[in-house]
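Example for tutorial group B:
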């Protein structure tokens, strides 16, 4: 022990939350050190569905192309199948992740990006590489041991796992992104609701080329209903594509109340053959592990100078594909605030808004994911197979083909149960509709008004707290998403031609308060045009009004009209938002 490494922000963990935080902070020029316990990034595919908001973040950070290059594209993710086995009978399909033509419109109108599939084993190296290239220090095989806070910073004890050498890192702020069993969160005493290990589950990764059985119904997920498939796990058996169509991951449950299964290669091979319905297959098993399904979210996310992000604050099954996405979004929310405080243009009180904004998101996604897993019960009931085994289950499944009242009842119940699965696979409102209420938002008392189901449908709005709506802007040679004009490194004021006086106001406020703030005037002959006239319909303020967008693309404040003294009005708004009044 002895040497002390100094940094502005220390991040514990290099998963989606930690690596995204390192990239965001490095992008903003903050001195950042990221430590991680293992010698490299995730060693199993884990999270994979990457939704529009996460893709927008990658776009904003300039890595969208790299992610797309390693991802399975949108066109191949969505023909989700329910079956008795991959080679067996198909029970039905559902278009997922916004691939049904009518839903695809909702998804395309709401974002410049579409949902893709990139396993964590591919995503994490992209995040880590870019973070390091932009200046973050990354220390592998380095374990967090404990921390002590004082008025000026945090002293963190770490161990180099190669040499056993223990040393200290002194940081102004710490982010605990150390996963579902976060030691950082435990050490700072964060509070939680819910329970861990409510169901038993296992992952089996394997290689087998089964293109002939799947490439006509391309999907990331093939759900298998077989005896035992509703015991534990995530609703039913799952064959998940890792790489099309020869690398796969099976999720299979077990009864958490009993002793854990003795999972070995032979058992893994048996499960693969059963779920694929290919008794003679010789799969190459590449890994297997047991894991617990959790239903737990943090109600506090910060203690002093230490914050937690990612699975450290939300622990839930993979249903709805929200784990890694929400972790990346936590990081994106927190990093610009830390930068603003460290760079001296915001008061430390800005940091309180992280918990106010992200704790409700944690609760919402944990609740939604667990509900989605349970809703597989509707499907089992519709098919009348609850608790049945072997021949009995096969007979009950066969009955859905019968020209009998019971067969007809089953078919009708199946239609309804499949409809419910939209709440897992097309929950656009949950995926995109994060609305913030905090000291970093100046509410005008409005909220986006859902006209349809709030979980399924996203409503675009400029109500302060909502995410900036998507519109295409540009001119005869360029086309940008509106979000591209509001980059992460600054605040952006959007206005129209009769609001041009806001430009001088914003320049004066930027210089007075020393904040990165620029104005974009949207209109013919100006910086960009509203190419499809969408922004005019979405902005919800007069052309001469203004919408103030935070670095993370949430609307912080808006003015319906141009006031007599826009500089004074804007200065008061910005100073309030940054805790500088
Ligand atoms: P994550 O767990 O990814 O990373 C934690 C980091 O902290 C690691 O880098 C680790 O090395 C580090 N760390 C931990 N303790 C440390 C210490 N003391 N010192 C230093 N570093 C430390 N989700 C999904 O949507 N679909 C899926 O199919 C799956 N499948 C799945 C399988 C398995 C086996 C797991 C464990 C998880 C999943 N998940 C999942 C969940 C998904 O992986 C998860 O939501 C994200 O990885 C969360 O990202 P975080 O960055 O928060 O933690």
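The residue assignment follows.
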């Amino acid at each position: 022990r002895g040497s002390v490494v100094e940094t502005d922000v220390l991040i514990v963990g290099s998963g989606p939350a930690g690596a995204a935080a390192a990239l965001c902070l490095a992008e903003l020029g903050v001195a950042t050190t990221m430590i991680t316990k293992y010698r490299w990034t995730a060693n199993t595919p884990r999270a994979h569905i990457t939704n529009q908001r996460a893709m927008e973040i990658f776009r904003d950070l300039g890595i969208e192309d790299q992610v797309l290059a390693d991802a399975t594209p949108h066109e191949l993710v969505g023909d989700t199948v329910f079956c008795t086995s991959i080679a067996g009978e198909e029970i039905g399909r559902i278009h997922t992740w916004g691939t049904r033509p009518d839903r695809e419109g909702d998804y395309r109108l709401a974002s410049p990006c579409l949902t893709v599939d990139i396993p964590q084993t591919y995503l994490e190296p992209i995040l880590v590489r870019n973070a390091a290239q932009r200046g973050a220090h990354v220390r592998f095989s380095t374990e967090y041991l404990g921390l002590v806070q004082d008025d000026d910073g945090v002293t963190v004890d770490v161990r180099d796992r190669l040499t056993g050498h223990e040393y200290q890192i002194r940081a102004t702020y710490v982010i605990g992104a150390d996963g579902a069993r976060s030691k950082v969160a435990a050490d700072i005493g964060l509070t939680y609701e819910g329970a861990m290990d409510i169901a038993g589950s296992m992952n089996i990764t394997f290689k087998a080329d089964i293109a002939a059985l799947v490439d006509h119904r391309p999907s990331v997920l093939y759900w298998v209903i077989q005896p035992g498939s509703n015991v534990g796990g995530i609703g039913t058996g799952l064959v998940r594509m890792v790489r099309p169509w020869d690398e796969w991951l099976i999720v299979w449950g077990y009864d958490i109340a009993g002793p854990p299964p003795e999972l070995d290669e032979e058992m893994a091979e048996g499960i693969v053959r059963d779920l694929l319905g290919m008794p003679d297959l010789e799969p190459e098993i590449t890994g297997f592990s047991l894991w617990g399904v959790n239903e737990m979210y943090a109600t506090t996310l910060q203690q002093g100078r230490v914050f937690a992000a990612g699975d450290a604050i939300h622990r839930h099954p993979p249903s709805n594909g929200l784990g890694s996405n929400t972790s990346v979004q936590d990081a994106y929310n927190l990093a610009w605030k830390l930068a603003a405080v460290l760079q001296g243009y915001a008061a430390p009180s800005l940091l309180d808004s992280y918990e106010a904004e992200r704790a409700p998101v944690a609760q919402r996604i944990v609740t939604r994911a667990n509900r989605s897993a349970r809703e597989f019960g509707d499907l089992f009931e519709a098919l009348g197979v609850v608790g049945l085994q072997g021949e009995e289950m096969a007979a009950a499944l066969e009955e859905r083909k019968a020209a009998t009242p019971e067969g007809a009842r089953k078919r009708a119940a199946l239609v309804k149960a499949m409809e419910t699965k939209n709440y897992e696979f097309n929950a656009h409102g949950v995926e995109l509709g994060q609305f913030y209420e905090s000291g970093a938002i100046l509410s005008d008392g409005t909220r986006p008004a859902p006209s349809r189901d709030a979980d399924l449908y996203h409503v675009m709005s400029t109500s302060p707290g909502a995410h900036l709506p998507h519109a295409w802007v540009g001119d005869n040679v360029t086309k940008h998403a509106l979000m591209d004009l509001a980059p992460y490194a600054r605040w952006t004021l959007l206005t129209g031609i009769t609001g041009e006086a806001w430009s001088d106001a914003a320049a004066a406020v930027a210089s007075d308060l020393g904040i990165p703030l620029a104005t974009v005037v949207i209109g013919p002959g100006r910086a960009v045009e509203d190419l499809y006239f969408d922004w005019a319909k979405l902005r919800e303020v007069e052309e001469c009004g203004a919408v103030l967008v935070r670095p993370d693309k949430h609307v912080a404040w808006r003015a319906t009209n141009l006031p007599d003294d826009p500089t004074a009005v804007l200065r008061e708004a910005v100073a309030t938002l940054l805790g500088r009044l």
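The pocket of dihydroflavine-adenine dinucleotide is lined by residues 12-18, 35-38, 44, 46-48, 120, 143-144, 177-179, 183, 203, 289, 291, 310-312, 318, 321, 323-324, 327 (CB under 6 Å). Compare this with the pattern of hydrophobic and polar residues in the output above.
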